[in-house]
Every structure is written in structure tokens, then in C-alpha cells.
Amino acid sequence: MPRIPVGNERGFTLLETVVTMFIFFSVVAVVPFLLQATNTPSSELSRNEQEIHTWLQEMTKEAKYAREYAIELNRLVITDIDGVERSYRQTDDQLIRSGRSGGHAVLRNIENFGAELVSDGVVITVLADGKRYEKTLRHTLAPEEEDIWITKEP
Description:
Layout: H1 14-37, H2 41-63, E1 66-72, E2 75-80, E3 85-91, E4 94-99, E5 102-107, E6 112-118, E7 121-128, E8 131-138
């Protein structure tokens, strides 16, 4: 029986479609491994750098409520307007923050942490990955009798 052509017979066969899908999914499966291979150690350094910048921003916020700074036994002690003390000290390659409820590491992979008292506050210095990060924290400018208008952020 002769075959009768029915309109437009252009298109893809099932075999062509399966081969195309196989090639597409093979490429999709390999791409994540190629992207992972392109990560360099410098991306790890930038993550550490971001953590240091974030910590310095947090210290700036904490300084808004600081009443007094002291350096005792190689650690920085910050007393806030409520009389709560928080201390920062270096242990190995970590910076540890201690307070009422214990301590925890706030920075890792640091080479050195230092604090120096100046007339209007303290200068903190962190050395990590061969770079030096420095921030000056100042006392709160509110007089003792006006503490009532200063409230802590949640």
C-alpha cells in the first residue's frame, strides 16, 4: 500500500529528540563541577575580609552605648551605659568576645588583635591575611544625667 503524504511532515524524530536531550543534560551535569574548579583561594580571603568589615561595623554600633574602655591583661573591656562589661581577646587565631553569658569567637583566621587607649576612646587593630584593619571607637557623647534618652536597639 503506497504511503499518502499528510500535509507538513517536517519535524524531529523521537531518536533525534532523545539524543539532543542526552547531550543537554550531560552539559548541565558537568557545569557545576567546572564552576567549582574555578574557585580560587582568594575568594576565601575575601570572605574573611568581609567578616572583619562586618565585625568593625558591629563594634561601631556597640560603641554608641559605650561608657568606658579599658585594656586589662591583653584584652579590651567595653563597659556600656548599663554597666555591662564585654571583653575581646585573642586566642590563637580567633578573636573571642566574652560577656555575662559566656564567650564565643567573633573572628577567625586573624594574626593579631590590638587595642590602644586614646583620649576620646580606643583604637582597635586587626591584622589578618597580611592586611591591617583599624577602627577608632569613641565614648558616647551623652552626659551621665542624660542616660535616660539613650535606648539600646533590639
